[in-house]
TrEMBL record:
Chain intervals for the UniProt region annotation (Disordered): 302-324
Alphabetically ordered keywords of this record: Signal
InterPro entries: ABC_Transporter_SBP (IPR050902), ABC_transptr_periplasmic_BD (IPR002491)
Family of the protein in this entry: Belongs to the bacterial solute-binding protein 8 family.
Biased composition (Low complexity): 306-317
Gene3D superfamilies for this protein: Nitrogenase molybdenum iron protein domain
PROSITE patterns per the UniProt record, alphabetical: FE_B12_PBP, PROKAR_LIPOPROTEIN
SUPFAM superfamilies xref list: Helical backbone' metal receptor
Name this protein carries in UniProt: ABC transporter substrate-binding protein
Domain Fe/B12 periplasmic-binding residue range list: 59-332
Pfam family, one: Peripla_BP_2
Signal peptide from the UniProt entry: 1-21
Length: 332
C-alpha cells in the first residue's frame, strides 16, 4: 500500500473547491453569436419529457450554484435573467467562468419561488427536483407552465419509478447529458461538445494516476444533519467523485440522489475517509468539529485516526466543478 493511500485512509477530508473545467476547459469564443436561426425549431428530451423550442430562451433563471455554473460554462450569460443561490463569493474565484457572476444578476439567496421568476420576467427556469422544484410550495414545471414559463429539470434529479426517488443515470453522465441538451437548446452544440470532451479527459487523466494495486478506501460523504446525516446516494455527484477518484462509496447502494440515513448505518459501514460538503449555513469546520466530538462515531476509523486535509465549497454538488473534484480527491 502506498503512503498516499495510507494517508487517505486515516483522514477526515473537506471537499476542495477546484475550477471544474480546469486548465483549458473554458471554451474559447464564449461570446460568439448564434450561427443561424435555421437551427430552430429543435426538439429535446429532458427527464422523459419532449419539448420543442422555436428559438433560444432569452431570460433564464437558475437555482443554486452548480446549475448557474452550467450556464456560465456554456457561455450563456446573455440568455439569463438571474440566478438564485447562497452567497459563495469566496469559492467562486478559481472557476474559469467566474465572470458569469458579475454579468448575471444575483436575484436572491432564499428559496426560489414564483414571485422571483415572475419579477425577473423569466421565460425558462432551470432547477432540479428538490433543488428548486417541489410540490410543497407548488413550484413545479406544471405550475410554471400555467404562467407561460418553461422549465428545464436538472437531469441528475430526474424522478425515477413511482415514488419521489431521483436519478436515472450515473451523475457524470447526467452532467454530460445536460451540457449536450442545453447545447442544442441554445445552439451552442460545439461549445457543449468541447466541454464534455475536456471533462471526460480530466476524469480519465485523474484515474490514470490511481494505484492499481491499492485497497480502495471506504468513504462517507457528510452534507449536514445532527439527528440524522444528510448524505449522497448513487445518483448524486459525490458518488462519481468518490468512486472515480479511487474510493469505495459506503452509501453507493442507496438508489437516490441526496437522502438521510441513520448514524447507526454510518457506524456499521466504518468509513475510513469522511468527505465533508462545505455547503449551507453550517461551516465545514463546524461540521468536522461535530463529527469528531459525536460519541457514537468515536470508533469509526475516519474519526478514530483523524488527520486533516482541506476541501471547500460545492464540489460535491451537481455542476461542472465535479470533474476537477474527482482529480483533487484522486490526488488526496
Amino acid at each position: 500500500m502506498t503512503s498516499v493511500m495510507r494517508t487517505a485512509r486515516t483522514a477526515v477530508a473537506l471537499i476542495p473547491v477546484v475550477a471544474l473545467a480546469g486548465c483549458g476547459a473554458k471554451v474559447s469564443g464564449s461570446e460568439e453569436k448564434p450561427r443561424s436561426s435555421a437551427h430552430y425549431p429543435v426538439t429535446v428530451s429532458n427527464c422523459g419529457v419532449k419539448t420543442t423550442y422555436d428559438k433560444a430562451p432569452q431570460r433564464v433563471v437558475t437555482n443554486d450554484v452548480g446549475i448557474a455554473e452550467i450556464m456560465f460554462a456554456l457561455g450563456l450569460e446573455k440568455h439569463m435573467a438571474g440566478y438564485v443561490a447562497p452567497d459563495y463569493r469566496a469559492s467562486r474565484q478559481d472557476v474559469p467562468w467566474k465572470d458569469g457572476y458579475g454579468k448575471v444578476k444575483w436575484l436572491s439567496k432564499k428559496q426560489i419561488n414564483k414571485e422571483m421568476v415572475l419579477d425577473a420576467k423569466a421565460d425558462l427556469v432551470f432547477a432540479g427536483w428538490n433543488y428548486g422544484f417541489g410540490e410543497g410550495d407548488n413550484f413545479t414545471p406544471a405550475s410554471l407552465k400555467k404562467l407561460g414559463i418553461g422549465s428545464y429539470v436538472l437531469t441528475e434529479s430526474c424522478r425515477s419509478g413511482s415514488g419521489n426517488e431521483r436519478g436515472v443515470m450515473p451523475p457524470l453522465e447526467a452532467l454530460y447529458t445536460d451540457l449536450t441538451t442545453l447545447g442544442k437548446i441554445f445552439d451552442v452544440e460545439d461549445r457543449a461538445a468541447k466541454l464534455v470532451a475536456d471533462f471526460r479527459k480530466k476524469v480519465a487523466d485523474a484515474q490514470a494516476g490511481i494505484p492499481k494495486d491499492g485497497k480502495r478506501p471506504s468513504v462517507f460523504l457528510y452534507d449536514d444533519g445532527r439527528d440524522k446525516p444528510v448524505t449522497s446516494g448513487a445518483f448524486a455527484g459525490p458518488h462519481d467523485i468518490i468512486t472515480k477518484a479511487g474510493g469505495d462509496h459506503v452509501m453507493g447502494d442507496l438508489k437516490d440522489t441526496w437522502t438521510t440515513v441513520s448514524w447507526e448505518t454510518v457506524v456499521d459501514r466504518r468509513p475510513e475517509v469522511i468527505v465533508i460538503n462545505n455547503y449551507g449555513a453550517v461551516s465545514a469546520e463546524q461540521k468536522k468539529e461535530f463529527l469528531l466530538s459525536y460519541p457514537p462515531l468515536k470508533d469509526v476509523p475516519a474519526v478514530k485516526h483523524s488527520g486533516s486535509s482541506s476541501w471547500t465549497t460545492s464540489t460535491s454538488s451537481r455542476g461542472p466543478r465535479n470533474p476537477d473534484a474527482i482529480a483533487a480527491l484522486a490526488r488526496y
